[in-house]
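Can't paste images in this forum, so I'm doing it all in text. The chain is below; anyone willing to post the predicted structure tokens underneath?
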Amino acid sequence: MSSDLIFHVVSKRKWRECYLNGTYSISDEGTEPSAIECVRISHLNDYLNQHFKGRKNLFILVIDSSRLDRKPVFNDDSEITLIGQEIRSEAILDKIRIDCGKEGQFDLTVFSS
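Text version of the structure:
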């Protein structure tokens, strides 16, 4: 199961705006939904520090990729995959609130089996 887990980072505000009617999708008013970026557990710290340094009030969505409509494909050259335009609630196993540390960095200790 752990190999089926992928992660998406979103601000608390954006989560409230984008989670409606049992699905999460990223779109601005009047635009088509965007593809959703996800990472594997082994790249989560690096991803957070590259894209969210200094940010607070973030959620990490824990996603079971086996419950998605399409299986995510990771490019060997990239730690990021795009998983389509929406995530149904049954694929989101948890959301974990996080903040950066005093220096603006993230240092998550993550155990995977």
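The chain has a mean pLDDT of 86. Residues 44-51 form the longest helix (8 residues).
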